[in-house]
Write a structure and sequence with these properties.
alpha/beta; about 25% strand; six-stranded mixed beta sheet
């Protein structure tokens, strides 16, 4: 397990049909999207998740917490938290939740600028959202004492 500041992180944008995934390096604050995980009512194919974990060997998971505009938690927050707990339970890798308010809207804007035609059901922005979630986590960690 790498120490804080040098960790490899897998970030997830939880969804009921697709779960966005990004991988990032804490040292250089870089993040890039990976292929989304298909999900059935929020449950991914855990064999695919296991292959991701085996391939990347992350030191930390980060899962987006879809808070309401006012900061309150809705049903999807409970489901995202449950997903994070399952990640920890299956792989023993710490999992942190991060406020993801606005990440999907921002991801769609980024995709439109890159020429996306707006059919998000067929061509999702889940990976971009996962990158934004991880970048938000990096930003939150900036300036904090190591620990």
């Amino acid at each position: 397990m790498a120490e804080a500041g040098q960790r490899l992180i897998l970030a997830f944008d939880f969804g009921t049909r697709r779960i966005g995934v990004a991988v990032g390096n804490e040292m250089i604050h870089s993040a890039r999207p990976l292929d989304p995980l298909p999900a059935r009512d929020g449950i991914p194919d855990w064999a695919v998740v296991a292959r991701l974990v085996e391939a990347w060997r992350p030191d930390l998971f980060v899962v987006g917490l879809p808070l309401e505009v006012d900061g309150s938690e809705a049903e999807m927050c409970a489901r995202a938290r449950k997903f994070g707990k399952r990640l920890f339970g299956r792989y023993g890798i710490p999992c942190e939740m991060v406020d993801e308010r606005g990440s999907t809207r921002e991801a769609k804007a980024i995709a439109r600028e890159a020429g996306h035609r707006g059919n998000y059901r067929d061509e999702g922005v889940d990976g971009i959202s996962a990158v934004l979630i991880l970048e938000s986590w990096f930003a939150r960690r900036e300036g904090l004492p190591p620990g």
